[in-house]
Structure formats: structure tokens, C-alpha cells
Design goal:
39% of the residues lie in helices and 15% in strands. It is α/β, with parallel strands linked by helices and 319 residues long. A 9-stranded mixed sheet has the order 1-2-3-5-4-6-7-8-9, with helices on both faces. The two termini are 33 Å apart.
């Protein structure tokens, strides 16, 4: 595995990166779980990856507009049982931005598979938040990963219907292609209460530290541009058509107060995927795994024990 030390000076922006990205030396000085961070070259660009713990490999994939900070509390809990691998997706956080066309569902699935090959990890369990769940489902269907279980944490696995769905993709493409829009959005993000309102609109309640990391990311025009381009390139209809042949055991964890992905979408996916299950978490929003990491960790560890991925818990022993 070829890694680049985290202290190495940031490389010059790639030609594809029209906007400045977060800088590790400046923006990563207090990044959650910083000691587990590495920079790895794969698929033609440099990734920021966090790896911690020992045991069977578990892959965590964040959603659009987020980064590894999203796992700041959940990853250490899982690392007590697994080798946890959590990358920043292409263009997000501290991972370089590839060619714009790679910021698509198929492109990200292929590039993430390339990263796993470089890391020499074959995850036995995977979990994806929001769009990250779609990336993992695509990889399972492609056969690039063969985990025993896939946890969709408020997963965004179905296309948006109606007029909103028809307008969102071209609108996001226009916004992402602009040199001005990502910079304006980043400027607004630095204003008072902007991030607080943005997170509240997801139905979640985060602590001040969680809000600060989202603010730091959204104040970066490069991060914003990549998220917009990802939304503009996203096509979920082909994935939805293939979900009925998903063989990986799918567990859909949904927050009852999710204002981003309607909980009823989990019920629709459940009806499409044989053998899938739904776990409702009342009162939590789109970022349920950040609000209640201990509960999400317990669900995943219990699944792993039932599947034989971890040894059974001895009677009377505490988790």
C-alpha cells in the first residue's frame, strides 16, 4: 500500500479543481480521529482515508457534502471489533477532485473499488449514509465488493420523483459548472447561523463540534463544487431497477424525523429487495448515526455476531 504521510505539504491543485479545496495543514489540524488519517494514491488521485482498529474489515462511506468527520463518534466504537476503513469520497473533504465525469454513481463505485484494491481490504460489512448507501449497493451489484451485510443509514437509493427530480440534475449541473456559485455558497456558509439552519433542515440536532466541521467543509468552494457536480451527475433510476437482484443482506436504518430522505423510501426499498429489513429510529433525523452512534454501532455489531463475522458475546459479558 502506498501512503503519503499526513504531514506532507498539500499538492498543487489539479487542473480539474477550479476551486480551492480544504487544506489538511490548515483545516485538518483538529480533524476528528486525525491520528488514523493517511493519504493514499489510487484511481489516479490522492485520497484521504482513515483506518483504525483490528479485526475483519468494515467500510464506511459518507454521503454528499460530508466527509470522514461524519463518523467521528461511530468509527471508534466499531474499531473495537473491526478494522474500520473510512475514506473521503472523491472531491470531498481532503480527497482530491478527479475529472468531473468521475463524480457519478458508477465513477465513484469504480474508484472506491480501486482504492480498496490498493489498501488490500475486502470488507465483510459495509455501511453508507445517504448517497453513500447507493455507492455501496452499486459496488455489491457490480461484484467489486462481496460483504455479508450492507447498512443503509437513511440511504438515498431511489430517484426523486416528479418535477423536482426532473429539474434537480440539470440545475445542479449548471450550478456546479459555475465558477461563482460555489464561492458564493461558501461565503454564505460562513455567515451566522447558516450551518445551524442547514442541519436543522435535515431533522437532526448536532453538537457544536459537529456543526463546526460541516461549517468548515461548506466554507470550501472546492468541496461545495464537488458536491454539486456529484448531484448533477447522479442517476439512481438504473440502480433502482437492479435493486431486486441485490444478494447482500440489506439493513435499512431510518430516522423517523428525517427531512431529507423520507422514511417511506426505506419501506419502498424494503419491498423491492428480498430479505432486507428496516430498523426505525424514532425522533432522529438524516444524521441519525451522528446523533446516536452507540445505537447504530450496537445494531451493526449485533448483525455481525449473528452472521458469524464476530465471535458470539459470552453470557454476562458487557459489549
Amino acid at each position: 500500500m502506498r501512503t503519503i504521510p499526513t504531514e506532507q505539504p498539500a499538492v498543487a491543485p489539479r487542473r480539474a479543481e477550479l476551486h480551492p479545496k480544504p487544506c489538511w495543514e490548515r483545516d485538518g489540524h483538529d480533524w476528528p480521529n486525525r491520528d488514523s488519517s493517511r493519504f493514499v494514491q489510487a484511481a489516479g488521485f490522492r485520497w484521504h482515508v482513515q483506518q483504525m482498529g483490528r479485526g475483519p474489515a468494515l467500510l464506511l462511506v459518507h454521503g454528499t457534502g460530508a466527509a470522514t468527520h461524519s463518523w467521528r463518534k461511530l468509527a471508534p466504537l466499531l474499531a473495537q471489533h473491526f478494522t474500520v476503513v473510512a475514506p473521503d469520497l472523491p472531491g470531498h473533504g481532503f480527497t482530491e477532485t478527479p475529472a468531473w465525469k468521475r463524480l457519478s454513481l458508477d465513477g465513484m463505485a469504480e474508484d472506491l473499488a480501486a482504492l480498496l484494491r490498493v489498501l488490500d481490504h475486502a470488507p465483510v460489512l459495509v455501511a453508507g449514509h445517504s448517497a453513500g448507501a447507493a455507492v455501496l449497493a452499486r459496488m455489491c451489484l457490480n461484484g467489486s465488493i462481496t460483504p455479508d451485510g450492507l447498512f443503509g443509514l437513511n440511504g438515498a437509493m431511489l430517484p426523486i420523483g416528479g418535477m423536482a427530480g426532473r429539474l434537480m440534475t440539470p440545475f445542479a449541473q449548471v450550478l456546479a459548472g459555475s465558477r461563482l456559485v460555489p464561492r458564493l455558497f461558501a461565503r454564505f456558509a460562513s455567515s451566522d447561523k447558516f450551518i445551524e439552519r442547514m442541519i436543522a433542515d435535515t431533522g437532526s440536532v448536532l453538537d457544536p463540534a459537529g456543526l463546526e466541521f460541516y461549517r468548515r467543509l461548506t466554507c470550501s468552494p472546492g468541496h461545495v463544487a464537488a458536491a454539486l457536480r456529484m448531484m448533477g451527475n447522479w442517476k439512481l433510476r438504473p440502480l433502482a431497477a437492479e435493486l431486486p437482484r441485490l444478494l447482500t443482506k440489506l439493513v435499512l436504518v431510518t430516522g423517523g424525523n428525517d427531512k431529507t430522505i423520507a422514511p417511506k423510501d426505506a419501506a419502498r426499498v424494503h419491498a423491492m429487495v428480498p430479505g432486507s429489513s428496516v430498523v426505525a429510529m424514532p425522533g432522529l433525523g438524516h444524521l441519525a448515526h451522528e446523533e446516536r452512534p452507540h445505537e447504530v454501532s450496537a445494531l451493526m455489531i449485533e448483525f455481525a455476531r449473528r452472521a458469524g463475522l464476530l465471535p458470539p458475546l459470552l453470557a454476562g459479558a458487557a459489549e
